[in-house]
Every structure is written in C-alpha cells, then in structure tokens.
Hints:
The chain is an all-alpha fold. Helices cover 76% and strands 0% of the residues. InterPro entries: MFS_dom, MFS_trans_sf. Keywords: Membrane, Transmembrane, Transmembrane helix.
Amino acid sequence: ISTVTSNAFYIYIFFLRFVNSTAYYGLSWSTSSLGGNHFLVFNLIGLVEFPAYIFLLLTMNRWGRKINISGFLILAGLALLATLVISKSNTWLVISCALVAKMSITASYGAVYVYTAEQFPTVVRNMGLGVGSFFARIGGIVAPYINNTSEIWISMPLIVYGSLALTIGVLSLVLPETLNKKMPDTIEDLIVTSGKKYEQVHINDLEKNGDASKDINDKL
C-alpha cells in the first residue's frame, strides 16, 4: 500500500510540474490573443516575473513551500477564470488578470522546482529532477497547441490554463510541508522515515481509542 501511495505522490508531483510549465509558457506566448498593444503586453508579461521572484524569496522560508505553491496556483486560476465574466471590450482588465496569473504562475514555478528536489533522496535527486523537468518540457510543447484553440474561442486558452491551475492548486493543499525538514540521503532513509511516520500515526490513533499502552506492551 505504501508503495502505491508513494508512486501516486510522485506522479502527482510530476503532473504539478507539467501544469506549471504549461501555464507558464502558455501565458508567455498568449500576448497576441489578449488584445491591446502586442509589444507592450509582451514586455509586461515578462516584467511581472521580477516581483514574483522577489516575493517568493521573501516568503519561501517563512510560509513554506506548500502555501506558496497552492496559494499562487489558486490565485492564478481565479484570475484567469475571472476573464469569463469580463467583457472582451474591457481589454486592459483582461490583460491585468493575465498579468496577475503570469506573476502567480512564475512564483509557483520557482517554489515547485525547490519542492520537487526536496522530495527525493540525495542518491536519486538528480534523477527525480530530471524526470520532473521532462514532464515540464512536455507542458512547454503542449502550450502552443492550447494557445491555438483561441481560433475556436478567444478565451479558450485562458480557461484551460485557469482550470488546470485552480484544480492542481486546490489538490496541493494536501501536500506535505518540507520547510525545515531533514531530507533523506538514501532510499533506506526514506523508507525508515516513512515507517516512523506511519508508526507514529498508528500510535496516535490507538491513543485516541485508549489502546496505546496495550499495543506497546504487546510489542515488548
């Protein structure tokens, strides 16, 4: 059961990288469908990355990884989905929502990169980062095709990115926090750590039922 759970967790981490990359590159390349001055919007889409990374540097070690990842993804999703109720004649309001989303996705992207590295033991950390980057690159490949759906409906790309970001952001609320936690060096360390966590939870459950002392005596 623990193996299945671990596999599902890592699949989720890789999907998180995929969604972040898809939304990041998709928004970066969607300036032509946002309206307004294309050159100005393109520059603004790039400039919002500066405050995003500065804010992330200030909050990463204060709020933790999970809050940053989930919070920024949810904010990006809400900003993009808000374009559904905004009149297309109000071009700069749509652009403002896209800029907020791009800034949020950028901050989330930085946090996810750190978080991914902290999920793997030292001996396979490079491999884990490599697989995560592989899924992220797939997201970058898919993004232009999603942007092409604007020919069907002008708001389609923003809705797709917003839905993905909001969904994965809400799901990220259940992720374990890694701030100030010791990272495993070997696979054996990861197994031992997982075992201790399971045993502690098991004992806590027994204590609630008043059977903890009996269980411990049986083990002795």
